[in-house]
């Protein structure tokens, strides 16, 4: 029987930052990964002469060396910043309603306000007031929540307590009358996973604040470069890793972790486990039923599995400008009724809202010379795909892909004629690769009750911790942060027991 201080299950973002933090602290750590490469969603694949980025569109929280954001600080603590090269994106995003409306928002507060005032003159006075709220709220959230102010109160942080759990749509309706302006400001909803009517204003505000103040970034080499750098640092710190080897069972006795059994049949003795797998898989598949606290099962029953994604990866035999792609991040929508669009996520109907990301705009070296690549994404639940007979699956898959390609063609004429390589992934693709229920990319639905305000990275089972979207918010910055947070909690627990 092998003995370790901590076993980390899964080498996704959260698993990697947990493993690195613990190994750098001198702990004996074993990292188990069922695939042959690290990264989870933070990875890439090759088709022809293109290496396609799987999931990263805009990296938030980086900031510059002069104005470092929280993620830059975390990666610095991990010892990997000198192995990574980041590229700042020029603009925040472009929103296009084909044939009707087109706007690009820059990455600077005053410039955004100026652009919006020029396009929506009737809302001229309300626009700066809205951004004042976003910024004032975010500063209170940072001071009170992120910096763990022990004197946090409604009196000291009134905006934080007033607006955190209100939905974004209500706040937009309070400030604006123009539905198009509200649609432009809230377009990140299609990126986050819940419509403005359900998205907590607090989540929206801090996200928008971070993108504006710390800018959106691209990573040279894609997200796989970051996964590789974190793994390399982990190994340099003496950590052990087993690829192609998942966890079969978490051994629990007397309400605390005792060890892990691997798929290879080995039993690992340990007092702590960090699970970067879904909480559902961890409790239901890895732990004996009689060892799961009843209250934990009730918590799981109250949550709903979040959306996955349908993505079309395209390698084009031209440069972005040849077909009019001038921005890295392009939201294309044919509707302002976001609740109806969201409802279609549970069907295989075209929803009319998608994101087209072309990394080569920010990083001309991302693809081979004279070429570029674009990923077209529409979030979608796995449910309708379960009902499609296997004999009809590929027809349904490519029919949906054609719909997204047609939408791209309306904005970028000639797009389809330049496709050299194309690959499509459905929610079932994500389910098969990630092993997440429903192929969910953000864990549970990102409603307020399943946000970081209420989710804990610590289980009721002593010694069991979680890292990743299933224990908080989805996205790269939150999941990378969650891994470090869980590792720090374990180190604190270890110190108490000394």
Q: Give the class-level CATH name of the largest domain.
A: Alpha Beta
Low-confidence regions: none
Q: How many β-strands, per DSSP? A: 20
Mean pLDDT: 95
Architecture of the largest domain in CATH? 3-Layer(bba) Sandwich
Strand composition percent: 15-25%
Major β-sheet profile:
7 strands, mixed
- Rg over alpha carbons: 22 Å
Q: What is CATH's topology name of the largest domain?
A: FAD/NAD(P)-binding domain
Task: Please give the share of residues in helix.
Answer: 25-40%
Computed structural class:
alpha/beta
What shape does the CA trace take?
Answer: globular
Q: Please count the helical segments.
A: 17
Give an overview in words.
The chain is an alpha/beta fold. The protein has 3 domains: about 1-85 and about 220-300 and about 445-495, FAD/NAD(P)-binding domain (3-Layer(bba) Sandwich), CATH 3.50.50; about 110-215; about 305-435. The chain has 17 helices and 20 strands. The strands form 5 sheets. It has a 7-stranded mixed β-sheet with strand order 8-7-16-17-18-15-19. Strands 10-3-2-14-20 form a 5-stranded parallel β-sheet, covered by helices on one side. The chain is globular. The protein starts with a strand and ends with a helix. About 50% of the residues are buried.
């Amino acid at each position: 029987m092998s003995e370790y201080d901590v076993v980390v299950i899964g080498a996704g973002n959260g698993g990697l930052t947990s493993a690195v933090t613990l190994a750098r602290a001198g702990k004996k750590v074993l990292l188990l990964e069922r695939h042959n490469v690290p990264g989870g969603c933070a990875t890439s694949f090759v088709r022809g002469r293109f290496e396609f980025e799987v999931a990263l569109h805009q990296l938030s929280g980086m900031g510059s060396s002069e104005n470092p954001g929280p993620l830059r600080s975390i990666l610095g603590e991990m010892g990997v910043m000198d192995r990574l090269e980041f590229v700042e994106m020029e603009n925040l995003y472009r929103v296009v309603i084909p044939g009707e409306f087109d706007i690009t928002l820059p990455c600077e507060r005053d410039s955004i306000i100026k652009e919006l005032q020029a396009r929506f003159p009737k809302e001229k006075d309300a626009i700066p007031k809205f951004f004042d709220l976003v910024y004032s709220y975010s500063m209170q959230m940072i001071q009170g929540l992120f910096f763990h102010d022990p004197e946090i109160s409604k009196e000291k942080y009134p905006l934080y307590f007033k607006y955190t759990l209100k939905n974004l749509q209500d706040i937009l309706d309070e400030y604006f009358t123009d539905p198009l302006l509200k649609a432009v400001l809230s377009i990140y909803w299609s990126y986050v996973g819940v419509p403005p009517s359900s998205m907590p204003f607090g989540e929206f505000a801090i996200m928008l604040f971070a993108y504006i103040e710390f800018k959106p970034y691209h990573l040279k080499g894609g997200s796989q470069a970051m996964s590789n750098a974190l793994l390399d640092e982990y190994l340099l710190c003496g950590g052990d890793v087993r690829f192609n080897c998942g966890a079969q069972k978490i051994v629990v006795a007397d309400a605390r972790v005792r060890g892990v059994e691997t798929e290879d049949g080995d039993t690992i003795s340990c007092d702590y486990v960090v699970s970067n797998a879904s909480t559902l898989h961890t409790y239901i598949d890895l732990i004996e039923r009689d060892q799961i606290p009843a209250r934990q099962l009730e918590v799981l029953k109250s949550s709903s599995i979040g959306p996955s994604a349908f993505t079309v990866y395209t390698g084009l035999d031209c440069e972005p400008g040849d077909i009019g792609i001038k921005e890295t991040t392009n939201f294309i929508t044919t509707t302002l009724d976001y609740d109806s669009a969201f409802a279609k996520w549970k069907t295989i109907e075209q929803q009319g809202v998608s994101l087209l990301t072309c990394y080569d705009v920010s990083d001309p070296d991302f693809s081979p010379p004279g070429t570029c690549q674009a990923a077209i994404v529409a979030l979608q639940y796995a449910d309708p795909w379960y009902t499609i007979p296997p004999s009809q699956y590929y027809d349904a898959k490519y029919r949906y892909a054609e719909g997204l390609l047609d939408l791209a063609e309306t904005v970028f004429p000639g797009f389809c004629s330049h496709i050299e390589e194309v690959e499509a992934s459905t929610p079932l693709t994500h389910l098969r690769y990630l092993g997440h229920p429903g192929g969910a990319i953000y864990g549970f639905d990102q409603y307020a009750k399943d946000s970081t305000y209420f989710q804990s990275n610590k289980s009721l089972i002593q010694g069991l911790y979680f890292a990743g979207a299933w224990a908080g918010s989805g996205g790269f910055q939150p999941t990378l942060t969650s891994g470090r947070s869980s590792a720090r909690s374990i180190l604190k627990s270890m110190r108490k027991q000394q």
